[in-house]
């Protein structure tokens, strides 16, 4: 496809190259500005309301810290699943229970390691923002190094822009691969992205988040990890703009459910200039996930009230039942520390809660048993 085959409002051009032409996007900001329909503007308003609502409820519950960590881990799992990783939220919780010191385990299988890397990178990025640091290319490269730690493929350039062309397979059968710009153009394009972020964009933050995500994925600046890093940047951007207090929404779950449309909507921007359709799809993802997070948080709050109502006493079993939302995945020896009790007492608490159906053993092993809070996991997963 040559330049003349693209409509005038396409934000870039195809450059002939063997065996497939590569796409050369225009730098940010987009000129002329994308035309946004009234319907999409209404969707932005609704999404903003839903995000504000989930931010409000999530930061006030007693288990806010655990919810914060859980949603980061769910986002990590969903993001790597889009890339084909086979990993469950429970796997991530199990890892942290087995490695409480935080030291890296080099024996972890690759799929789980990718999720752990994403969690670490997102947590690090949020910490940097909380310290007042802006989103810069230097930070983006640091995050890329964290995402690919111990999971890089041969030939990957880690922590710096790629030095070769890449070909992205289309989800549509028979369609040629999408080839992002050459390495020579990456520095200028990414500098325009950094400048756009620092200027605060040109639109509502949710619209700018859609533009930034499209641009990052289209430029595809790294040899691997672009999808994960691009989705991570959505959350960091909204937090940096003061639009999201904490990562209480996880957009990767929506993109994973609509994976083919996710890819095709971005390609339609490049080839047809279909900005409004992409922005509507993207913002609906944020709106939908915010709505889901609100309902999930509400259900967890009601579960907490139920445990407090059904276990009002001062026994160790009652005390821990009321703390299950703070410790949804644990081992019996963990209870020795949590409750400051003997091992015998800890095992009695486990037996009591297991008999009541509040927890279940998940390993199937005779030794080193691990337990999860059934109702909590049902809501989170």
Automatic annotation (TrEMBL):
Basic and acidic residues compositional bias, start-end: 1-11
Region described as Disordered: spans on this chain: 1-34
InterPro entries from the UniProt entry: Fic/DOC_N, Fido, Fido-like_dom_sf, Fido_containing, SoFic-like, Tscrpt_reg_TrmB_N, WH-like_DNA-bd_sf, WH_DNA-bd_sf
Fido domain span: 135-284
Pfam families in the record: Fic, Fic_N, TrmB
Biased composition (Pro residues): 18-32
Superkingdom of origin: Archaea
Record protein name field: Fic family protein
Organism whose genome encodes this protein: Halogranum gelatinilyticum
């Amino acid at each position: 496809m040559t330049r003349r085959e693209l409509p005038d409002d396409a934000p870039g051009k195809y450059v002939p190259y063997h065996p497939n032409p590569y796409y050369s996007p225009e730098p940010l900001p987009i000129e002329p500005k994308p035309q946004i329909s009234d319907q999409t503007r209404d969707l932005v308003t609704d999404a903003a309301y839903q995000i504000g609502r989930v931010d409000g409820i999530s930061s006030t519950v007693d288990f806010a810290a655990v919810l914060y960590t859980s949603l980061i881990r769910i986002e990590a799992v969903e993001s790597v699943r889009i890339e084909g990783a086979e990993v469950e939220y429970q796997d991530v919780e199990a890892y942290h229970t087995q490695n409480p010191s935080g030291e890296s385990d080099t024996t972890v299988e690759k799929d789980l390691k990718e999720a752990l890397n994403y969690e670490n990178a997102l947590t690090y990025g949020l910490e940097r923002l909380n310290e007042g640091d802006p989103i810069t290319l230097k930070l983006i490269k640091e995050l890329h190094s964290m995402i690919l730690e111990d999971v890089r493929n041969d030939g990957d350039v880690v922590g710096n822009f790629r030095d070769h062309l890449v070909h992205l397979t289309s989800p549509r059968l028979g369609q040629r691969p999408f080839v992002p710009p050459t390495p020579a153009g990456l520095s200028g394009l990414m500098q325009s992205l950094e400048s756009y972020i620092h200027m605060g964009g040109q639109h509502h933050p949710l619209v700018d988040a859609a533009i930034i995500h499209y641009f990052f994925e289209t430029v595809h600046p790294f040899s691997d990890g672009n999808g994960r890093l691009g989705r991570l940047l959505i959350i960091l951007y909204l937090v940096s703009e003061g639009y999201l207090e904490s990562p209480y929404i996880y957009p990767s779950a929506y993109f994973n459910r609509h994976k083919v449309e996710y890819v095709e909507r971005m390609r339609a921007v490049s080839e047809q200039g279909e900005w409004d359709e992409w922005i509507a799809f993207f913002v609906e993802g944020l709106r939908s996930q915010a709505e889901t997070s609100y309902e999930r948080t509400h259900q967890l709050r009601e579960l907490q009230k139920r445990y407090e109502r059904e276990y009002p006493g001062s026994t160790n079993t009652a005390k821990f039942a009321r703390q299950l939302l703070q410790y949804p995945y644990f081992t019996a020896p963990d209870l020795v520390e949590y409750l400051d009790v003997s091992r015998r007492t800890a095992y009695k608490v486990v037996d009591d809660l297991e008999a009541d159906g509040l927890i279940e053993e998940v390993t199937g092993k005779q030794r080193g048993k691990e337990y999860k809070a059934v109702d909590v996991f049902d809501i989170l997963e």
